[in-house]
């Protein structure tokens, strides 16, 4: 895959990056080099390679999957300017 100058300008526009006409050829080369490397990575045979969560072997810490209120609702509501029955009260902003 090869990137042309129009694509470089489009990517720069989407990324909201100001790019001068003088910078476009250099960025085109950079993007083409990146894409060539990605294509090279696609050629690597990874069949039989287990997915990793870390570079060091470790067990994932698991917790019980249950819903709680965090057990600190009173502390959280203490920061509210106004509350009622366990909920924040906010001024109406939509008519």
From TrEMBL:
Q: What is this protein called?
A: Aspartyl/glutamyl-tRNA(Asn/Gln) amidotransferase subunit C
Assembly behavior: Heterotrimer of A, B and C subunits.
One Pfam short name: GatC
Q: Which UniProt keywords apply?
A: ATP-binding, Ligase, Nucleotide-binding, Protein biosynthesis, Transferase
EC number(s) from the headed UniProt entry: 6.3.5.-
Q: Which SUPFAM superfamilies match?
A: Glu-tRNAGln amidotransferase C subunit
One GO MF term attached to the UniProt entry? glutaminyl-tRNA synthase (glutamine-hydrolyzing) activity
* Assigned protein family: Belongs to the GatC family.
Asked if NAD is a keyword of the record, the answer is no
Q: Which InterPro entries match?
A: Asp/Glu-ADT_sf_sub_c, GatC
Could you tell me which species this protein originates from?
Blastochloris tepida
